[in-house]
Amino acid sequence: MTHRGEMGVNAGGELTDDEIERLTRRGLRLAQVTIAYNVVEGAVAITAGLLAGLVSVVGFGVDSGIESVAAVLVALRLSARLRHGEADERKERVALRAVAVTFFVLAAYVTVEGVRGLLDGEEPDSSPVAVGLLAASIAVMPVLAAMKRRVGRRLQDNLILADAAETRICVLLSISTLAGLLLHALTGAVWLDPVAAFVIAGFAVHEGREAWEGELVEDVEDDEDAD
Asked: What is the 3-state secondary structure (H, E, C) of the chain?
């Protein structure tokens, strides 16, 4: 099984075809786990957010849906690689840019909802379900993101690294949203919830640009050099 070119190189020739296939299958399994987890997470978050009037929790649920879409795109391309024994670079470039678009969609949605929340100034209700869901995400998602990043780094694969970046954004959104909910409970400040929703927009735009330009592999290499 060969996997070379812009979308994934053979790690400087160090990986065998069997190793590339094994890592690709692992990347596929991680994408499938992401899809299953985020479908449930998104449904619970959107329901809890709407019932409690929590803009950032609804945004978190929408993020779960967007992350599921990105994971589906990744899973489809990895499945195609395993079937055909090699990557179709043109289709994978299209898939990578489609994943990049999901970052921009997420940033736009969260920004619009955050502005609406600030203008409305509605008092959100507390939501133990949302708090529990966010805490679970903070526990689960970093592990999933690290596993994806490890596979993507080994394969030097922008598509898998984009999926890992989307999962890391889910972690950041979980932390910022939970912090906003807890600070609101402590201070009663209505503006904290929509402002917490803005935090993720900057990260999403940055990662989306990196994915669009196919620079995630270079980004990882720069991080490793800095270490």
From this structure: CCCCCCCECCHHHCCCHHHHHHHHHHHHHHHHHHHHHHHHHHHHHHHHHHHHCCHHHHHHHHHHHHHHHHHHHHHHHHHHHHHHCCCCHHHHHHHHHHHHHHHHHHHHHHHHHHHHHHHHCCCCCCCHHHHHHHHHHHHHHHHHHHHHHHHHHHHCEHHHHHHHHHHHHHHHHHHHHHHHHHHHHHHCCCCHHHHHHHHHHHHHHHHHHHHHCCCHHHHHHHHHHHC
Comparing C-alpha atoms, which of 39, 32, 113 is closest to residue 79?
Answer: 32
Residues 104, 34 contacting (CB under 8 angstroms):
no
pLDDT tens digits for 11-40?
A: 445 788 889 999 999 999 999 999 999 999
- What is residue 14's predicted lDDT score, i.e. its pLDDT? 77
| Tokens matching residue 83 | 């079937």
Measured CA to CA, the distance from residue 177 to residue 192 in angstroms comes to 9
pLDDT tens-digit map of 116-149:
777 876 666 678 899 999 999 999 999 999 999 9
* Structure confidence at residue 149 (pLDDT): 94
What whole-number distance in Å separates Cα of residue 192 and Cα of residue 19? 47
pTM: 0.75
How far apart are alpha carbons 158 and 123 in whole angstroms? 42
